[in-house]
Amino acid sequence: MDKRRLPASLVLVALAQVIAVIVLPPSMLMSISLPIGIVIAAVFGLLGLNLLRLRDWARVATVFVQGFSIIVRLLTLLSNVVPGGADAQLDVTLLVTSLVSMLLSGCVLYLIEKPDIQLIMQR
To answer: CA-CA distance, 95 to 79, in Å (whole number)?
Structure first.
């Protein structure tokens, strides 16, 4: 396979991993300070860029980050979707964004573990 021609699934992984991390309820997204947001964007931008440069460590880091993201989202979902108290209501925004993020992270994990991606990354 020509190194200049990347599989579409690898490009999709590089983009989807960034989207999966920033899918947050609007209130949470607005509470992140600008410097922290810039650092997060830079880290995931560099990770995606190194995936496209076929660095094997970027594949391993993506698996770790997306797996960790699923665990954190699940714990956040379980503890915050229905707050305690007599008048507790379901936080639909948190529920939907967490499920979308976990689904995207799962898709990233599925795609990056496909044999064609693993073979091209090991060159």
So the answer is: 11
**Residue 2 burial (CB count, 10 A):** 5
Give per-residue pLDDT as tens, 27-62: 888 888 889 888 988 888 899 899 999 998 999 999
Q: What angle do the packed helices 34-52 and 56-80 form, to 10 degrees?
A: 140
- Scan for tokens 């970027």, then name that residue: 58
Task: Give yes or no for a contact between 122 and 80, defined as CB atoms under 8 angstroms apart.
Answer: no
Q: Please give the model's pTM, rounded to 2 decimal places.
A: 0.83
CA angle 2, 53, 69 (to 5 degrees): 125
How far apart, in whole angstroms, are the C-alpha atoms of residue 71 and residue 85? 25
Distance CA 115, CA 76 (A): 32
Structural contact between residues 23 and 104, judged by C-beta atoms closer than 8 angstroms: yes
> Phi/psi class of residue 32: alpha, beta or left (left: φ > 0; alpha: ψ in -120 to 50)?
beta
